[in-house]
């Protein structure tokens, strides 16, 4: 197994050897490495990254040989790791923008992970949403093994999931002119409706439906489907609360 000194030396040689264009490497007194610019390791021979790596840009790992992320990785931009063999985002990883890990081997996320852009985990073997996950953009968990949303999940834009696979959401099929599946989920500290790219409260959902469909029968049906999801989820959450308080959960 390579030592951190060997890993650092190989990495520095690669970056300073101009194999990767448009980046500048700074080696700090404490041994950490700062990279200024977007770091694209696709089609390079690098298999391991040094600990305490800071990238002041985005990190591209698709088509790379990297299978394990280093400790104390900090990325000012986005992390692109689709279709890689990386299985875990380590504790302490900082991502300034988006995390794209679709169709990768990703299985585990750290608690209290903040993603200030979007998070795409579509097609990953991820089986759990960690405590404290906060996504400022959209969250896509379609095709994952997740069966339950965490109670403190925060998603500020859109939420995409396979509703029939998630036990703590309530959904309705064949909704609206696009015949889409809509669902109610407890997210952002309250019960919200998700319909396509929309994620928000019932009142806003009703306003948007009436703006598009007017006040006719079609709008009434769509709104009723949304209310059904909300009402049934409230019932489900209350049942879970009662079971938990009685020790039956």
From TrEMBL:
Protein name, per record: Uncharacterized protein
Organism: Limnobaculum eriocheiris
